[in-house]
Design goal:
alpha+beta, three-stranded mixed sheet, 6 strands, 14% helix, 27% strand
């Protein structure tokens, strides 16, 4: 006798899979999703619901791709990133590069005597 069909259980998250604008950076094999850190230091993927929000936070030069939230989660899961932040409003500028300090050459030799 055939088994009766059963519906899959409803997902816990009932939000629709909306498209997000996801910041990317160029890489040797194409664009790579940028991963950010929350104020507490956790790694997070970021998506924006509009180009206006993305440029207001990251600037007009930021490259992006359109992805659904489940696709974004799938891309960052192998990196151990489980959090997705939608429409963050603040971002800190990148830290200034550290310029190494070169010690001044010694001009006088030590004299023993």
């Amino acid at each position: 006798m055939a088994q009766p069909l059963r519906d899959d259980p409803e997902p816990a998250d009932r939000r629709p899979a909306r498209p997000l604008l996801v910041p990317v950076r160029p890489g040797p094999w194409g664009d790579a999703v940028r991963v950010f850190r929350t104020p507490l230091g956790s790694r997070t993927a970021v998506g924006f619901t509009s180009a206006r929000r993305l440029t207001a936070t990251l600037g007009g030069e930021q490259a992006w791709i359109r992805l659904a939230e489940p696709a974004l989660r799938s891309l960052v899961a192998p990196l151990g990133v489980t959090r997705v932040t939608v429409d963050p409003q603040l971002s800190a500028p990148a830290p200034a590069p550290v310029v190494p300090v070169t010690p001044a050459p010694m001009t006088a030799a030590l004299r023993v005597g």
